[in-house]
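[Meeting: bench + compute handoff]

Bench side (C.D.) handed over the final construct sequence. Compute side (W.E.) agreed to return the predicted structure before the next meeting so the bench team could plan truncations. Sequence as handed over:
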Amino acid sequence: MSPLEAQVALNMLTGIGPVRCRRLIRHFGSALQVLKADYHSLLEVEGIGKELAKTVTDWQKHADPVAEIKAAHAMGIRLITPEDPTFPPYLLEAYDAPLLLYCWGNIEAMDQQAIGVVGSRRCSHYGLHSSRKLTYQLASCGMTIISGLARGIDTSAHEAAIAAGGRTIAILGSGLGQLYPAENEALAQRIAGGHGAVISEYPLNTRPDRGTFPMRNRIIAAWAQALLVIECPDKSGSLITANLAAEYGRPVFVVPGYIDSKNFIGSHRLIRDGATLITDGSDVLEDLGGMHVPTPPPSAMQEARNSMLNADQSRILECIGNQCMTADELMEACDLSAATVTRSLTLLEIHGMIKSQPGATYAIT
């Protein structure tokens, strides 16, 4: 058995987790030696009880690392261990770092300069606008955007990073063979196809559940240099991620929201407890290292915007004209699918060509 096969096998065993896996490896010297250990030797390791010791000694009943590696390669997925130079260094420093990463796409050296972006799945128009604006600014300046591929803020953050010509990393709370949510499969393909990577620590066919998402959140918090919270309700995954980031010693930046909105209760609590309030990407960049958001000349900006428009986006602008229209009205007027209209509206708003209005309508700026 190769060292990689041993690490894959150990990672496939349920109920152990990365902390105890690393404890076992430190005790026995390698993942391969862990799998060779006898029942009584395993019991000598702190945190390893009878049930887990039996799971490890019977590992062949629970894991087929050769088949797992073969399936990953067939899907174009690379397995990255902590010994690999592309393994994120900030993540490697975490006490609960993953045993390995399944990577669809590519991790590059520039991805060390990264910021995590989190927020509500059921976000407001204000939250979406804030996410698109700030993420676009940060990605334009070379920051890799790390988020969770979830609905709402996560999706907008990934899309804005791509629109800015930047890089983005999507961390899943499931295996790459069970991509969740399913409607973001096309977005995941775009990310992996040249704009970054889709990452999971879980075996390929792991389904998402309530326990996998908090584990996913710790990777976002540990990998990034800082965390940006866009829209955070109370008792939410975003709040968990922010607390984890603080534990890892990462700066936490928060967008303020409406004082009477339940979607910003967690955001305002974070600000009250010491997180940094921000209203522009330059606030984050200056705090991290004196960087600033460049502002191109108006003529160059307009030329760049026009060159980015495709036929669907131009059609939507023509349909809107001097009025305000909803996405549903645009679907009918332009004879476009819901997905095309939603994607086009997102990009047009990112580039400042339209603006969301009350009543879920859009108008040209």
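W.E. noted at the follow-up: The first strand starts at residue 78 and ends at 80. C.D. will use this when planning the next construct.
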